[in-house]
Amino acid sequence: MSLPTSAADVLRDHVTLELQCLDRLYLNVYQPELQTERKVYGYLRKQHGAGAVSSRHFQSMTQAFVQRIEAFAKASNVPLLTFAKHTRKEELAAEYRAQGTGAEGLLFIGKAQEKVTTFRTQGRRCPETGASYPWLVKTTALVNQYYFYGLDDDFGPFFLKFSSYFPYGGRLCLNGHEYVKRQLAKEGIAFEALDNGLYRCADPRRAQAIADGLDAAKIDALLRKWLARLPQPYSAADQQAGYR
Known about the structure:
The protein is of the alpha+beta class. It is about 35% helix and about 30% strand. It has 8 helices and 8 strands, in the order H-E-H-H-E-H-E-E-E-E-H-E-E-H-H-H. A hairpin with a 6-residue loop joins strand 5 and strand 6. Helix 5 crosses helix 6. The relative contact order is 0.18. The mean pLDDT is about 90.
């Protein structure tokens, strides 16, 4: 009589390496003081001296931000692309990585229109006097997003994207497996890589220790490192006031 073999039994006999590790992370990057109408109004009064509510300030900020991105791309000799419809961004990034030779740097900047949350000025009328007045409302809009695809010396492939319109929210995307690969290579530990993981490693315990050591502080340091290198949507005066 033969007993049925479970999936766990089959895997146990064929697994060469077991590693618990963070996989792909897609993290929000935003300015917490600019997420409500009241806070945005306070920002306009404090930083722009706006007596009346008006989203026209956002438009000039966007124009300045886009100009800084374009100037940065030109000065750094980084390609600035417009993503065609249905472009597979990760496949395109893989092509650029295959052509690259350095351990760290930007591969390209990509632009695409996406829907985001923002603030607009809406005209309202006082029911008692009939006088019109502007009012800030939270809404959505289709605006350009700028994707900065790069390689980091510690984390490997990543991208950081920004909305080109106020309040300029962003996203950071990274992969914990790529972080482990980079650290193993730096320590001279031999391994065989998978597209998204490891197949073999000369020192599995050290690989697991590296994976366990990837914490919030390291990810925060990665973000701040690249924020310091890339164009910023907020002016120097804004940043000094805590808007970054």
